[in-house]
Amino acid sequence: MLMSKPQVLFIAGTHGNEINASWLINQWIKKPEIINVNDFEVVKVIGNPEALHNCKRYLDCDLNRSFREELLNDDQLALYEIERARELLLNFGPKGLNACQIAIDLHSTTSSMGTSIVVYGRRPADLAIASLLQSRIGFPIYLHEGDDNQKGFLVESWPCGLVIEIGPVPQGLLNAKVINQTKLALNIFLEELGKLNTKKAFFPDKIRVHRHVKSIDYPRTVDGEIEAFVHPSRQGSDWHPIENGAPLFLKSDGSVIRFEGSETFVPVFINEAAYMEKNIAMSFTKRETWEFSKDWESAIYSILSL
Amino acid sequence: MLMSKPQVLFIAGTHGNEINASWLINQWIKKPEIINVNDFEVVKVIGNPEALHNCKRYLDCDLNRSFREELLNDDQLALYEIERARELLLNFGPKGLNACQIAIDLHSTTSSMGTSIVVYGRRPADLAIASLLQSRIGFPIYLHEGDDNQKGFLVESWPCGLVIEIGPVPQGLLNAKVINQTKLALNIFLEELGKLNTKKAFFPDKIRVHRHVKSIDYPRTVDGEIEAFVHPSRQGSDWHPIENGAPLFLKSDGSVIRFEGSETFVPVFINEAAYMEKNIAMSFTKRETWEFSKDWESAIYSILSL
Prior knowledge:
The structure is a homodimer.
Chain A: E1 7-12, H1 19-30, E2 41-46, H2 49-54, H3 69-72, H4 80-92, E3 102-108, E4 114-120, H5 124-137, E5 141-144, E6 160-167, H6 176-197, E7 206-216, E8 228-230, E9 247-251, E10 256-258, E11 266-268, E12 282-291, H7 294-303
Parallel strand pairs in A: 1-2, 1-3, 3-6, 4-5, 5-7
Antiparallel strand pairs in A: 4-6, 7-12, 8-9, 9-10, 11-12
């Protein structure tokens, strides 16, 4: 099926206990007037409806790690999320029945990430969109790459796609501030898309990127139990650099575990509740300034067939 | 089995996704020196270990609504939490193998309750303990009573018992501030218990109580879906009075639902994640000042056999 113009997929509830964007998307479906789409074609969908219904991150496995060829192509795998990934691609994938070219995956986090953008790898079109959003309103960009333990993110299956990650907010809780932040991010994204459509988008000269270097675990006993928690001076300090000797974790007896290293990192996703099971207390990034590349611009225009 | 002196039960993880107190209790079991018990006999236990293991509030039903005679005595009922309630009473109940006279049940909440005390009904010994804690450090007291929809609280099965409720904190997340608040509350409770033991406790003349009046639900559609969230000016405002005309909820189209009523209430447990399924957006209380009663003092001394 050939579409008259490019379609954008808005997906929420990819994790069923991140309910703010899901609630907003459901409201948007019922009341289209609450968010102006600037004559763009948009598709709105709940990523993991069964998990949302149960207010769980997932039923069988993390949907946002399920978009890997080897999982999707394994006919023996009948896990709910793998089947849901196949279904989403069949319906809304770039070659789907109702094909979308851009996917925006809306998430929330218990970390103090503010409203931030996550891109996976260095795809030019993703970086073009991230550049527009950052130059417009300053959203920080987390570039996730080179992490063999974390693969198969949803947006990677679309020609262009990024995650909007908002926090802090508990799982399973509607929060006014987070709903408003999500709505603002959607409005701004759609406005920028409108500008692309009329070739009036303004790209910056440089962008600031937080490049993933590594994730670190909580200190654990030999039995695997967490024996220290994030130090109060580090809790809530996402995007703030950490240097050698800074307090990192605190043990129940009051002793402090400090960060040791000659490099300065910028931690993100500090104390995200869902990452405990992934043995991630926080991720360390390097803050870098990149020149904007004309290739990014042409990549997004090419995807939008403009 | 006759105990040489009264025993106090400290219970955490009665809800399996409230992990801060559970973590602290487990640390305390391993490192008894982190909290000074003032020569008191204490028993430390995880209320719902299976739910904690799964980081869920409960498996079959809410353990902290399971301590009702008709449930405990129904031999046909084999739900995990009902059996766990029986087991806790058999082991640590007032007539148990390792009998305890006072139960302190440690909870956390996504609401901005600070460190607060919840008492169920008006049992004199509970009010005596609550009075000591409030006069010592100002913890607010929520008196839960007259609520036919909410019954069977754990501490009601002990001669004296209260809940210490701390928030805001997401479910399933270790948070430095909440762990420290929990530890402080335990330390102060144990110090006051030590003073009772040596008859040096200082009771106040008056206490301030927030008496439960009613709970209100989120605005919902006829299908039962939540159609408005807690207004940003009310979110996080637990313990702050609400008056006629004040913003209460906000809808996705921006329209405000206001509180209507001639009485002033003090809302508590505003937007507690676990209460969505109980159709509770917040509870309204009346703030009252009560004269301290000598009966409360004699009740706690009697329970402690002092």
